[in-house]
Amino acid sequence: MTLPQEALPAPVPEPAHSPDPETLICPPEQIFDAAAIRAAFDEAAQSGADAAELRKTAVALLRKAKEDGRAAIAAAFAENPFAARPLTRAYTFLTDGLVRSTLYLAQTHLHPVANPTDGERIALIAVGGYGRGEMAPYSDVDLLFLTPYKITPWAESVIESMLYLLWDLKLKVGHASRTIKECLRLGQEDFTIRTALLEHRFLDGDRALAQELKTRLRTELFSGTGRDFIEAKLEEREKRHRKYFQRYVVEPNVKEGKGGLRDLQSLFWIAKYIRNVEDPAELVDLGVFRPEEFERFVKAEDFLWGVRAHMHLIAGRPVEQLTFDMQVEVAERMGYQDKAGRRGVELFMQEYFLHATAVGDLTRILLSDLEANHVKSEPLLERIFRRKPRVKPGYEVVHNRLNLEKPKQFLADPLNILRLFEEALRTGMLIHPDAMRLVRANLHLIDDEVRNNREAQRIFLDLLLKHGNPERALRRMNELGVLAAFIPEFEPIVAMVQFNMYHSYTVDEHIIQCIAQLAMIEKGELVEDLPVASGILKKGVNRKVLYVALLLHDIGKGRAEDHSMLGAQIARQVAPRLGLSKSEVETVEWLVRYHLLMSDMAQKRDIADPRTVRDFCKAVQTVKRLDLLCVLTVCDIRGVGPDTWNNWKAALIRALYRQARRALETGMEDLNRENRGAEAKKALREALPDWSKADLKRETARHYDPYWQGLHVTAHVDFARMLRELDQIDDPARILINLFPDEDRDATRASFVMSDHPGIFSRVAGALALVGANVVDARSYTTKDGYVTDAFWIQDSEGKPYEASRLPRLTQMIEKTLRGEVVAREALKSRDKVKKREKAFNVPTHITFDNEGSDIYTIIEVDTRDRPGLLYDLARALADMNVNIANAVIATYGEQVVDTFYVKDMFGLKYHSKPKQKALEKKLRDAIAAGAERARAEAG
């Protein structure tokens, strides 16, 4: 039966506490029409629908309204991709409409009460981010159902009906049902609950009840507890930063990471708690922020919210980590385009990190304002017995931080800006936020006159050389803009992102990490890990040259030109301004120009080949340069990321250094194969004292010269025993395998001995790929009597040598593949899939042929995207062209890999012919393209 209109309860008036329609990203009627929804509910109720039918109708209506509203917001955001605040308010407006509509339906139609008692009242309150009115597309909906007394059966029914409706709408609802007394008690016990209540917002229901909560929270919970709240929020912030890493990690967490939205929110929570502000703009009127600082606050908040909103819309769910694949899509949505040799995504991420730095500055400013009145003092005994550092005239200690006594007098001499960082290092104190704020506001004082001042040069070099922790001064100078003001050439690389999986930090932070590594080596903290570099520094080098070279080694990045060449040109201009002599400038320029030389030679070339070491020595020329380059190379690799340096790289760098130093000191003749072969044979005889002279003579005679130079004596012993066993078996089809955990090199050496036949290298590579092994180096030698001895250094998926317990099974699987029981080409198809995170990278393929880098072989270098089975595909392509592979050197840089093959043709000659080179290149490119196509098919 249809009820007459007058029999329906009076409609609940729409409260005036949603976001202002003028502030939304699109017209409110496109987002949610509350009046139309309520009218539809009323009409359904009048038609005689029962409760179940009414719920079903309501869910259908609200679901469509939600989808239409979200579509309207997303479309408007696509048109205006930087309109973050209007977007967050629009999602809040939509959510308000949905939540209030469910309350209206529950109170008016599902559970109406003609004469409610005093206990049958509910105030519906938004808390947390929803209460603040800031919602990303897939933010949680946090609700507080506030009742005056213990919850009644009617209130339980209303709440239950509302929650089921909201869950049916696929909203992620966090909810609590409490009285005011319970809110006060729980808020006292738990700072998370207290923070949520701090940002509560009345939505609907009993307004008087909500007002009582607001009043009592301020008077009974918040009042007089500011110090406790500040300390709790700061402790929470520190824990969060430790969990989500630092600001300069290249895949940041936009919400929780350092410099992210949570830091801005924490800042505002503290201000609201202590200063009772409702809008951050009020902090300007209160004198906490200057207008330009508040503008930075707004820009950072808008940018971060925009990024987070785009991430949610791309993923279709709440995601907070800005992964590489997500960075590309967000940059495209926000309109960043490739420019001047840099990808749009790199420009986008540079802006991201600049805003993250701004958040750190603003946090320090607010904390400075709060410290004096709201942070607890140290215990009396600690204050009495703490030794206060003696500071120079003009400085004072405020809350254990270095501050300025007379700011105006300080600014009278621009050199004082540099002296501030010197005094901070000398005393070991942090700089007070007020002093930092003054410095940032007066960077214009650092002009050419200051940059060319001898005292300024002295102060800056002392910051690098004198106090033992230069990275601390450099990082703070960089964050405040002082480093870029003093060295303007540094500014383009501030917050610059290198869009790849190899580098863990921005370019400027990478440089500071490198300098931190050098300081640790100098202090003797890494002697066990870095004996060669530590020894070089202990003997003594020009520290000034080394530190300045590290500071400038990547200063040319981000341009279309080769960054090493451009960096050397910049170093030629900058180094004299830092007070270096002409000869020192030349050395710095050389180090910057060739800072990748040692790393490339060690990782991309066969350092057992005398020609490699000879060419390296020709480039380096002196032991002095070699020492400097070695230390710089070690610091550069270690500064890339926390896991970049390993024993394998250490062994390569160490071996190249020792060979080059010996050659530079005693002459290049020490590098010839005959000398080194004689030493290796002598070492083998000493390692096999139980062998007869006849057996030793046979073993040392069966190998060609490269074999003796290319392997360690432990490998020679392995192969000698395996070859003797194979001689005794006399089975041409037999394959012997030995796996040796070479923990000193962070790899497992897989040694293979079998009868020689074409394509054996590719078969072994395929077998290793099938068991999931990553090949980091490979050497193949044939004996004079028809055997092949292959040595592959392999690592597991985590870049470690295989555990001993896994070796027997690994051996069985490899043998099975080599016997032909599994066809590697087919079995590897399912492993070619490129991970989603890696799809964002453009890795063009470059293939080069070098006939000068080795006396015996043509060196083919293939620089392309890494993937499982790549080495096998390339080796098979070469085998199909009757190319003999002597060895392969594999250098991996995140998603990029450089596979270098030392090869001869079937007649034992180099590939000088250009047509032959082009044919080989086409075959290799076809193999790479086929693998990429399989990867796309697997991903699809």
Kindly describe this structure.
With 940 residues, this protein is of the alpha+beta class. It folds into five domains: 5-223, Beta Polymerase, domain 2; 227-374, Up-down Bundle (Four Helix Bundle (Hemerythrin (Met), subunit A)); 394-486, Orthogonal Bundle (Hydrophobic Seed Protein), CATH 1.10.110; 506-671; 704-939, no CATH class. Helices cover 56% and strands 11% of the residues. It is built from 41 helices and 15 strands. Strands 8-9-11-10-14-15-13-12 form an eight-stranded antiparallel β-sheet, sandwiched between helices. A hairpin with a 2-residue loop joins strand 5 (395-398) and strand 6 (401-404). Helix 7 (180-189) packs parallel to helix 9 (207-222), helix 30 (610-620) packs across helix 32 (647-666) and helix 40 (870-880) packs antiparallel against helix 41 (914-939). Residues 1-16 and 378-385 have low confidence and may be disordered.
Oligomer: single chain
Q: What count of helical segments does DSSP give?
A: 41
Q: Helix content range of the residues, please?
A: 55-70%
**SS-based class:** alpha+beta
Overall pLDDT: 88
Shape: globular
Rg over alpha carbons: 35 Å
Q: In the residues, how many domains can be counted?
A: 5
How far is the first residue's CA from the last residue's CA? 55 Å
Number of strands: 15
What fraction strand?
A: 5-15%
Sheet with the most strands, sense and barrel status = 8 strands, antiparallel
Trace the largest sheet across and list its strands: 8-9-11-10-14-15-13-12
Kindly summarize this structure in a few lines.
The chain has 940 residues and is of the alpha+beta class. The chain is built from 41 helices and 15 strands. A hairpin with a 4-residue loop joins strand 10 and strand 11.
